[in-house]
Design goal:
Structural class: alpha/beta
Strand order of the largest sheet: 4-5-3-2-6-8-10-7
InterPro entries: AceGlu_kinase-like_sf (IPR036393), Asp/Glu/Uridylate_kinase (IPR001048), G5K_ProB (IPR041739), Glu/AcGlu_kinase (IPR001057), Glu_5kinase (IPR011529), Glu_5kinase/COase_Synthase (IPR005715), PUA (IPR002478), PUA-like_sf (IPR015947)
Helix content: 25-40%
Number of domains: 2
Distance between the termini: 40 Å
CATH class of the largest domain: Alpha Beta
Order of helices and strands: HEHEHHEHHEHHEHEEHEHEEHEHEEEHHE
GO biological process, one term: L-proline biosynthetic process
Largest sheet: 8 strands, mixed
Radius of gyration: 22 Å
Number of strands: 15
Pathway: Amino-acid biosynthesis; L-proline biosynthesis; L-glutamate 5-semialdehyde from L-glutamate: step 1/2
GO molecular function: ATP binding; glutamate 5-kinase activity; RNA binding
Protein name: Glutamate 5-kinase
Number of helices: 15
Length: about 400
């Protein structure tokens, strides 16, 4: 194996050591490009090395979950496809063929260390439905009691646009929120977040991002990876999701030998994104950072301040606009006058009723609806601030 870690690793960072202290659960996401060789086939030696590193995490007393791409790429090779299919049936056929081969390869290498691969194939519905969400969480936690390493992937064999998660960067962040994990390691074929185009000799790796700034997205384009579905923009959006709920994230080069060990030892490898706040309760992680909003409520300045800074519930009088078609109990975004989201919550009224009572006082609501089933449009217990706190961007 080529040892390129020395070229991108600096001595131990004391800042990282402080942040990594107490890490007990880790989610590792590995991309298709990391797992593929020059011939677009599964790199058996790379998977063997990854298995050794995952065993090292377990041996250190930590829990680990692997989110692995590579099924479609592996299936393409087995089916003799030269380019990634564009139509859904052929993509699903490649996924169905490749997933079996991918898991068999992992399991074969895990067994060298006395472990087995445990496969979980998920769709967006497994995260939207609260009962299924908890079932997935309980399965992952229970697997941690045995000599298994859970391997999570999107169920590409059945996923359609309606139930598709998008890419495994997003899936990894959602799994990290689900467990919850203290650390998310994203292994790609770049050294981390760079100051410019990776092909430019002037681009430099950014070692640490202490607070996520939306301007970071301006450093990257919207391009996707050559074999997979994600790109650096996708990774940064997933970083935002994970760090917002108290999970540290590292993006690093997955083809560097010993990269995971170096990360956990606090060495300056890749880009370290520090968690922005203390971990929030599982219920609010599910509301704010897992479910896709079904609509939007536009608030006036006073209502935004009450929700975002004073910890208040949302009352109808503070709502100035309602968008979308949603039912009672579904997630909606709370936006300001510019349309910028700053919170999400489970709404107590459907879209028709919400439009009827928007901007109204309690006594007016009673006349319109005949009764007031809820004083709040969204109760504080079912509301999560998603914006970057003022002064921390």
């Amino acid at each position: 194996m080529v040892d390129i870690l020395a070229a991108v690793t600096q001595p131990v960072s004391q800042e990282r050591m402080v942040w990594l202290k107490g890490v007990r659960s880790v989610v590792v996401k590995v991309g298709t490009n990391v797992l593929s060789d020059a011939n677009d086939q599964l790199d058996d030696q790379r998977i063997a090395h990854l298995a050794s590193q995952l065993h090292g995490i377990v041996a250190s007393g930590r829990k680990v979950v692997l989110v692995s791409s590579g099924a479609i790429g592996a299936g393409m090779s087995l089916l003799g496809l030269k380019t990634r299919p564009k139509d859904l049936p052929h993509l699903q056929a490649a996924a169905a063929t490749g997933q079996a081969h991918l898991i068999e390869t992992y399991d074969r290498h895990f067994r060298r260390f006395g472990f087995h691969a445990a496969q979980l194939l998920l769709t967006a519905n497994d995260f939207k439905n609260r009962s299924r969400y908890l079932n997935v969480r309980n399965t992952l936690l229970t697997l941690g009691e045995y000599n298994t390493i859970p391997i999570v992937n999107e169920n590409d064999t059945v996923s359609t646009q309606e139930i598709k998660l998008g890419d495994n960067d997003r899936l990894a962040a959602m799994v990290a929120n689900l467990i919850p994990a203290d650390l998310l390691i994203v292994l790609s074929v770049v050294d981390g977040l760079l100051t410019g185009d990776p092909s430019s000799p002037e681009s430099r790796r950014i070692p640490i991002v202490e607070r996520f700034d939306e301007d970071l997205l301006s450093l990257v384009g919207a391009s996707k990876s050559s074999r997979g579905t994600g790109g650096m923009r996708s990774k940064l959006e997933s970083v935002r999701t994970a760090t917002a709920v108290g999970t540290h994230v590292v993006i690093a080069h997955g083809k560097c030998d010993g990269v995971i060990e170096s990360i956990l030892e606090g060495k300056d490898v890749g880009t370290f994104f520090a968690a922005e706040q203390q971990a929030i309760p599982a219920w609010k992680r599910w509301i704010g950072f897992t479910l896709p909003p079904k609509g939007r409520l536009q608030l006036d300045a006073g209502a935004r301040n009450a929700v975002e800074h004073l910890g208040r519930s949302l009352l109808a009088i503070g709502v100035v606009g309602v968008e979308g078609d949603f039912e009672k109990g579904e997630v909606v975004s709370l936006v300001d006058s510019e349309g910028e989201e700053f919170a999400r919550g489970l709404v107590n009224y459907d879209a028709v009723s919400a439009r009827a009572v928007a901007g109204k006082k309690r006594e007016e609501m009673a006349k319109i609806l005949g009764e007031i089933p809820y004083d709040e449009v969204i109760h504080r217990d079912n509301l999560v601030v998603t914006s970057i706190p003022t002064g921390q961007a």
